[in-house]
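Notes from the 1:1 (GR / supervisor)

We went over the backlog. Supervisor wanted to see one worked example end to end before approving the batch request, so GR pasted a single chain during the call. The sequence is below; no edits were made to it. Supervisor asked that the structure be written out right there so they could see what the output format looks like.
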Amino acid sequence: MKAPFTFLLLLSLFFTACSPEPEEKPKVEKLSLAEELANKQLEAYNNRDLLTFLEYFHDSVLVYDALQQPGYKGKTKMFEVYEGWFGMCDTIHCEILNRISAGNTVIDHERIYYTIEGRPTTFEAIAIYKVWGRRIKEVHFVRPEWE
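Structure output shown during the call:
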């Protein structure tokens, strides 16, 4: 009686050892629409592609300053502001240091590198993007206190 039991045990171990391991599927995190829009506008910003940058914003976008006061409204004004900013900078690049997102809101901790008249400068800010429909409708900037 011992031999058949031993044989079955060995056979069971053999098939267990030879059976393929269940493959773990790589976890692909699907980005929310808000994250996609935040990424696309950042890419256009870093490429200084103003027209593509503006495509991701609602026509009546509201941009709030660090005091949470409306800084300006609308893509026309946004065009003027960023055209001036891009024109003033010799180089410009923004990198995301940290991101939090939930639903239609993305909060980015950003580091902005730019050069004006050969002087490199860096500052950090927080940008809060709120998406309504399929465009960024609100942007809130939180910047460091200037000394």
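Supervisor's comment: Residues 31-141 form a domain with the Nuclear Transport Factor 2; Chain: A, fold (CATH 3.10.450.50).
Batch request approved.
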